What we know:
- The structure is a single chain.
- The chain is an alpha+beta fold.
- It folds into two domains: 1-34; 36-121, CATH 2.40.50.140.
- The chain has helices spanning 3-33, 40-44, 130-139, and strands at residues 36-38, 54-60, 66-67, 72-78, 83-89, 101-108, 114-121.
- The protein has a five-stranded mixed beta barrel with strand order 2-4-5-7-6.
- Strand 4 (72-78) and strand 5 form a beta hairpin.
- The longest helix is centred in the N-terminal third of the chain and has 31 residues, at 3-33.
Amino acid sequence: MNPKRKQRLIIILGIVFGVSVAAALIGVALKENINLYFSPTQMAAGEAPVGKTIRVGGLVVAGSVTRGEGLTVAFDVTDTKAVTTIYFDGILPDLFREGQGIIALGKIDQTGRFVAEEVLAKHDEEYMPPEVQEAIDKAHPGGV
């Protein structure tokens, strides 16, 4: 093998090695920051890991919201097959209400309770802020 060809081979192997190391580091970093999503059915089946940050989503069951002392709230969510109780100590979003879709980020504690650190309320896909609706109505009086 001539020296020029050997030099090219070494450079190419170095680049491949560098890209491989970078891809491995990115994979490890992403794995640490991924929050898996579980439905109430999966929670009831015991598929969710204890002590790991996960997301649970579903519809808030009507009549299930109970408020404790301070900002403590407990409520049930369902995917129409199973129900999971979520415990949260904090301020709920303005769009939170019974029958509304939510996603909670938190962990299952040692007693098996899902304790949320954050609760996000989903809005209706047809939701439009009043200011935007007013601007559209002015721009298109006959409707869009």
